[in-house]
Amino acid sequence: MTLPQPRTALKLSALLGAALTIVNTLVGVSTDALAKGLVAHHAAPQLMALSASLAVVIGLGAVAGGQGRRILATATPRRVALRSTLAAFSTIGFFLALRDLPFVQMFLFMGLMPILGALLSGLILRERLRPGIWAALALGFGGMVLMVPGGLTGLGPGHGWGFFATLCGAGSIVLSRGICRSHTHAFAQVFYAQLACATLGLVLLPWYWQPMTAADLGLLGLYTLCLLTTRWLMVVIVRLLPAYVAMQIANIQFVWMVLVGETVFGETTALATWAGSALIIAAGVWLVLAQRSPAPPVAAAPVPAE
After folding, report:
1. DSSP character at residue 148
2. 89 CB contacts (<8 Å, ≥6 apart)?
3. Mean pLDDT throughout 191-195?
4. Is 236 exposed, middle or buried (0-12, 13-18, 19+ CB in 10 A)?
5. Which of 95, 205, 224, 299 gives 51 a disulfide partner, CB atoms 3.0 to 4.6 angstroms apart?
6. Dihedral (C-alpha) 211, 213, 219, 225: value to the nearest 10 degrees?
7. Quick check: helix, strand or coil at residue 133?
8. 276 with 147: CB under 8 angstroms?
9. b vs e for 160-171, b when ≥16 Cβ sit within 10 Å of the residue's Cβ?
10. 3-class SS letters over 108-121
11. Which H or E element spans position 161?
12. pLDDT tens for residues 219-250?
């Protein structure tokens, strides 16, 4: 009588994770669009310092309001510190990539995250990767090569910053999944990541500071709220889904990025970009199906307790 309950719970968890991932793509595109508009006129370290400092102040306000255990407590301080450092490097890398690249090309790095996430999940979390998953990841890589104008010879500094940000971001998300197992609250992960961003930004700020208008400060505040929302959602999502599966479902973000790129930034999307994104999205579908298919029979072995 009780046997179907875990399966039902897993299905509901997967559906909720997929729904939250789609919502997160809309919030994420809004965050990236605000960041691209701001970084066109202000240096990345300045934007990161002010935005993260505002986020830290919001977190400390929640602590003063009685949420200290949720915001500050963690059972894995070293992992949280490493994850927060990676999140800070990822943030500044994405700012610089947004500055140098067309908006829609940022999808290339979002498509790259599941590949790196899958590899890092195996290395860090010891999660098993089936052969079908590797085929899906190879297909996604081919799509990303197609998305770059001129192929691999068309890579520039913006692509380098994007890859650096993606590598750090994928590591941060995979570590987040491991941290969740220690019962560290999602708010704590977001708070410490923003604290790391504020620290790095403030260290670099004296070399990049310039005055900001009231309108830009307002946009920066809105960007901060969107960023906090998407980072909190990502932590919740990886509780419900494997990190690389969640990042593949998020490939629907390409559609929103095309719409924003064309309507807000006046960009045009080349046919090769559409074709490359189609391969990436197909790889995402394949990846999810590979996860759902039965595993090949193996010899029985005792499963150690976590």
Report:
1. S
2. 164, 165, 168, 200
3. 86
4. middle
5. 224
6. 60
7. helix
8. yes
9. ebbbbbbbbbbb
10. HHHHHHHHHHHHHH
11. helix 157-180
12. 988 988 888 888 778 777 877 777 667 766 77
pLDDT at 123 over 60: yes
Nearest to 121 by CA among 176, 76, 165, 75: 176
Identity (one letter) of the amino acid at 37? G
In sequence order, which residues have a C-beta less than 8 Å from that of residue 19 and are 6 or more positions away?
A: none
Q: What is the dihedral of CA 141, 143, 144, 149, to 10 degrees?
A: 140
- Token reading at 77: 């301080």
Query: What is the C-alpha end-to-end distance of the chain, expressed in Å?
Result: 26
Q: Encoding tokens for residue 33? A: 């669009």
Q: Are 253 and 233 in contact (CB under 8 A)?
A: no
Q: How many helices and strands (H and E) does the chain possess?
A: 12, 0
| Residue 149: partners with Cβ closer than 8 Å, 6 or more residues away | 270, 272
Give the Å distances, CA to CA, from 231 to 31, 135, 158, 218: 11, 29, 23, 20
Place of tokens 């400390």: 60
| Contact yes or no for 45/199 (Cβ under 8 A) | no
The pTM of this model reads: 0.74
Angle (CA) 182 124 87, round 5°: 75
